Amino acid sequence: MRAVVDKDTCIGCGLCASTEPDVFQMDDDGKAVSVADTTDENRDLVEACVTGCPVDAIHEEE
Ligand code: SF4
């Protein structure tokens, strides 16, 4: 699984990047980007980012 950020929807609030910086980083355009796969170790934090994103810009793909 890998989290994917819809940059057209992301408002650049930074919540995901501060919650799980190993997976989400802020890109040069001020929008978040995912940089790592979801693993057993980071799954809970990634899920918190998916549910916590204020504009539902994060989804997960196989
Ligand atoms: S939490 Fe959502 S809106 Fe905020 S930076 Fe991450 S993807 Fe963008």
Overview of this protein structure:
- With 62 residues, this protein is an alpha+beta fold.
- The protein has a single domain, classed as Alpha-Beta Plaits.
- It contains two helices and four strands, in the order βαββαβ.
- It is globular.
- Iron/sulfur cluster binds next to helix 1.
Quick structural overview:
The protein has 62 residues and is an alpha+beta fold. It has helices spanning 15-19, 43-52, and strands at 2-5, 24-26, 32-34, 58-61.
The total beta strand count reads: 4
Write the H/E string, N to C: EHEEHE
Order of strands in the sheet with most strands: 1-4
Task: Label the CATH architecture.
Answer: 2-Layer Sandwich
Classify the helix fraction into a percent range: 10-25%
Q: What portion of residues belong to β-strands?
A: 15-25%
CATH fold description: Alpha-Beta Plaits
Which segments are poorly predicted (pLDDT under 50) over 5 or more consecutive residues?
none
- What global shape is seen? globular
Question: Describe the biggest sheet?
Answer: 2 strands, antiparallel
| Total number of helices | 2
Bound molecules: iron/sulfur cluster
Structural class, by secondary structure, is alpha+beta
Count of discrete domains = 1
Distance N to C terminus = 4 Å
Ordered list of secondary-structure elements with their pairings:
Blueprint: E1 2-5, H1 15-19, E2 24-26, E3 32-34, H2 43-52, E4 58-61
Antiparallel strand pairs: 1-4, 2-3
Q: Could you name the key traits of this structure?
A:
62 residues, alpha+beta, Alpha-Beta Plaits, two-stranded antiparallel ribbon, 24% helix, 23% strand, globular, binds iron/sulfur cluster
